[in-house]
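Help!! Second protein's tokens look totally different from the first
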Amino acid sequence: MPGQNLRTRKMQRTREDVARTAARLFLAHGYERTTVDQIADAAEVSQRTVFRYFPAKEDLALAPLAASGDALVRALRSRPEEESPMSAMRAAFGKVLSTLQEGGASGVDAPLLRLIDRTPSLSAELLRRAAGLETRLAEVIAEREGIHTGSDVRPQLMVAVFAAAGSVAMRDWCGKESTTLSHIGTLLESALDHMGPGLFGDWRSGSDGHTVTSRLNGDG
């Protein structure tokens, strides 16, 4: 119904306004020193409205990354079936990173990423939430390959390896004080290139995947 669509758009605009206001205050004053009351006042909404869209304060800072995680899952699901799992993951991440670099996903930029990296409570919460994203990505990989995560460890292992490489790339990027998001992709590709072919090859035709799975499952 037209009325419902208008209400939905209004709610989305309010949510985005609150998130942008929070990010601006976090960057100006620091995450710990910024209160929800200050965010509500600056966004010209009630504290109740803030909590309606963001149940916890950390949600205000991490919401843009949560949206990027959702985009990564969608991008991975849309990759061609003939791509190997790791090739699909790399391409999906590259697509999301390109969108961020072009400003197509609001809220994620170099200052925000550094704020999260330098705020222990936020980086710890991001790490906790990353486990859920890894599970979702592993399920997409398993579905693509026609296998089950309960009996084949490769999807979880591959996603964990990718996440570990991403963590290394992010720390390196933060240390270099780069302001270019695409540089994260370059560092990630470099980290992944240092890893062996057991996870990165074609699981359906090569023997490497079978050997890795057999060893991990204790079959020899």
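Here's the second one for comparison:
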Amino acid sequence: MLGNWSFDDYFKAEAIEWAWELLTKVWGIEPDRLWATVFGGDQADGLPRDDEAARLWTKVTSISADHVLAFGKKDNFWEMGETGPCGPCSEIHIDLGPDACDMKNVPGHKCSVNAGCSRYIELWNLVFIQFNRQSDGELLPLSAKYVDTGAGLERFVAVLQNKPSNYDTDLFMPIIGRTGRIIGHKYTSKLANKTDNAFRVIADHIRALTFAITDG
């Protein structure tokens, strides 16, 4: 997991602008493949739509206005628990193209952000912590504002290397290749293949164990 944090320093404008700069200018991802989501508000909590974030997306980046979408608490409001710091978030999604959809045979399915298929995947979540939820559920503004972002390293690598999954990147393929040579089977990159799934499980566990052993 990658990320950046601000403790009452920069806030929404900088977090949005810098994320966009890294994705489009440093890594060269085509802007028209990217979509942003913002908090659409919640009547129960008395919270309005995050118009500030929506406005900033079209002000400090080159994203098209129709690529900025609003969603509810489930997707665009971060909370650490029943009480404590929380706030709206803004997610960045990428369109992997029609061929990436895994719900083509589902009647009535239409590819879109947060529609459930694998064509659009989340790359980065920018969390704007500006409230403190009380034990009675009331949300009070924090005296200071914070940014906490989380980004998927493996997803970034898969996108930048144009691979169909995280496991087909150079983060996992050396492990998968070595495993194949040991057991005498070949990895074919097929999602529905039981042998390929076993390769992925082994690679994931080996990497996790490597970190665990290194940490003592």
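Reply: Different proteins will give different token patterns, so don't panic. Residues 166-214 form one domain.
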